[in-house]
Amino acid sequence: MQQADQKSPSNLENYILPGWPKIFRSRLGGNPPSLVLGNLESQVGITTGWKPLKDFLEIPRDSYAIMGQLYNPSLGLSGMVGNTLGNTNLHYWVLAGSQIKIARSLDAVLAFKNEGVEERADGSYGIKGIDGIKLSKTISLELYELVRQNIEVIDIRNQNASRVSEVVSNLPRKDPWGYPIEVEEPRAERQETYPSEGTHFVIREPKVWMAWPRILYVIRKFGNEKQSQYGEDQREIDALNVVIYNENPSNIDYRDFLPHSKEDISGYMREFLNPEKGDSVYTYGNRLVAYFGFDQIEACIDELKRAKFSRRAFALTWDPKSDLIGETKSDPPCLDSFQFLIQDDRLSLTTYIRSNDMFNAWVNNAFGLLAVLDKVASAVGVNRGNISTVSKSAHIYQSAWDRTNEILDAHYENLFRSPYRQDPRGNLHIYLGDELIKFTHLHPITGEPLKEYVAKNADEAEKIIEMEELVSLRTHAFYLGREFEKAERALREGLPYTQG
C-alpha cells in the first residue's frame, strides 16, 4: 500500500493533479448542474445524494473543493474515490441531501468507510456487507483502502444548505495524506442493444407486478444507451405504452420484489391528489387540484356526468410558462396529461408521461393513477376499466442497472409460468370440413360465434388471421400456428383432427 505523506504542503500543486477533477469532469457546468467545482484549497467534498445541487448552491464555494450528486452507488462512489486519489488535500466527504431506498447511495458511502472493499467470488469488487454494488476495477483494492483510511465521512444528510455550511466551516485543517495518483475514469459495462421497431412498444398485463418486470426487460434489451440531464447514463425506450386492466386499487396485488413497500404505495395512493405541495417544486395533486385555480379532476367528473360519451374529460399538469421557460424548467412535472374516456360503461384513464423513470417511479405512479381512476369512476357511476401510461422517454438510470438485472434474474421467467390468458379479441374454433380448414371466431366472454372463415391450408389461415386482426396476444398466435399446422397435416393425410 502506498504510504501517506504527512508533510505540510508548501505548494498545493504537489498534491492535486493538473486539471482536477479528472473523473466526471464533463459533468461540470451542466444545466441543471450535477458537479460543481469550488475552492481547491478546501479539504471538503460534498455529495447531495439524490437531492438536486440547486438546493445547495447557496453554500459558499470557497468552503468546499467539489460538490456533486450521487445517484449511482457503484459508478458514483468509484468516481469519488478516484477524484480523492487525485487530490490528497481532500480529507472530508460530507453527506448532505438525501437518498432513495432503492439506490442506497449515501448508505454505500458510509459502508465503504466503515467496512471496506472486497473481491467477490465472481471477481468483482464490492462493499463488504452490501449486495448489488459493483465498484470499478480501474482502481485497485489497495487504493480503495488507501482512501478509506485517509478520508473522514461526515453524515449530515437531510439538513438544509445553511446547516451544511455551518458544519463545513468548522472542520479542522489537516496535512495532505500523500501524493496524487491518476486512475482511469470508471465506466459502466456497456450492454448490447438489440434491434427493434424503435418506438411504440406495448405491454399489456392485468396486474402492476406482472407488467413491471416486462418493462425492465424491454428497456434492458432494446433501450438506447445515452446520457441524461442528471449526471448519469440511462437506457431509454421511445414511447412505451403500458396497459393495466385488472388491478383493484382497494386491494392491490402486491409482490415483495416491487421497488416500494406496500405501505409506501398505499400512502402514495392516498396522497396522489393532495392539493398541498409543501416544500416540493410541484406535486401532481397540487397541479391537478389547485394550481390552475380550480379542481381539474372534479371538472372531469362533472363533464362525464353531463355526457358519458364526452372526449373532453382532460386534465393537465404542464404549465408551459413555468415548466418550459420559467422557474420550474429545471424540474418540471413528468406526468403531463390525463384523459378519461367511457366505453361500454367502463372508464379508462390514459396518462401521457414525457419522462418516466421506470425503475424508481413507474410502480408508484401506476398505483396512484389507479386510485384516481377509481375515484372518478365511483363519482360518475360507471365501472372501473384500465389505465394506460404512455411514456415518451421510458428509461432506467444507470444506478438501477444492477438491481434491474437482479430482479429479472429472480422473477422474469416466472411470468411465463402463469395459467393460460384469454385473448381479449376472442377465440377460434378450428375444425375440418369439405376438404378445407374451417374456423369460427368466438366472442371472448359469451362464446357467441362472430364470423366463419375457411382456408385451404395453414398458410392461408394465418394470412386471414393477420388481415382480420383476430389475435392480440403472441401466445395465442403461437398456439394457433401449431393448431393450423396440425389441421393441415390431418387434412392432407386423411386423419381426424381435434383442436387441442
Question: Would you give an account of this structure?
Answer:
The structure is a single chain. This protein is of the alpha/beta class and 500 residues long. It folds into three domains: 12-169; 199-417, Thymidylate Synthase, Chain A (2-Layer Sandwich), CATH 3.30.572; 427-493. It has helices at 75-85, 105-115, 141-150, 161-169, 208-222, 262-271, 284-291, 296-306, 320-323, 362-380, 401-411, 458-468, 474-493; strands at 35-37, 44-49, 66-68, 92-98, 117-119, 125-127, 152-155, 199-205, 224-227, 233-244, 314-316, 335-343, 346-357, 383-397, 427-433, 436-442, 449-455. Strands 8, 9, 10, 11, 12, 13 and 14 form a seven-stranded mixed sheet that branches. The protein has a five-stranded mixed sheet with strand order 1-3-2-4-7. Strand 12 (335-343) and strand 13 form a beta hairpin. The chain is globular and about 95 Å long. It starts with 34 loop residues before the first strand and ends in a 7-residue tail after the last helix. Residues 1-9 have low confidence and may be disordered.
Quick one: CATH superfamily of the largest domain? Thymidylate synthase/dCMP hydroxymethylase domain
Q: How many angstroms does the end-to-end distance come to? A: 69 Å
Low-confidence stretches: 1-9
CATH topology of the largest domain: Thymidylate Synthase, Chain A
The share of residues in helices is 25-40%
How many strands, which pairing sense, and closed or not: the largest β-sheet? 7 strands, mixed
Approximate shape: globular
Number of strands: 17
Discrete helix count:
13
β content, as a range? 15-25%
Backbone structural class: alpha/beta
How big is the Rg?
A: 28 Å
**Number of self-contained structural domains:** 3
CATH architecture of the largest domain: 2-Layer Sandwich
CATH class placement of the largest domain:
Alpha Beta
Global mean pLDDT? 92
Q: State the order of secondary-structure elements, H for helix, E for strand.
A: EEEHEHEEHEHEHEEHHHEHEEHEHEEEHH
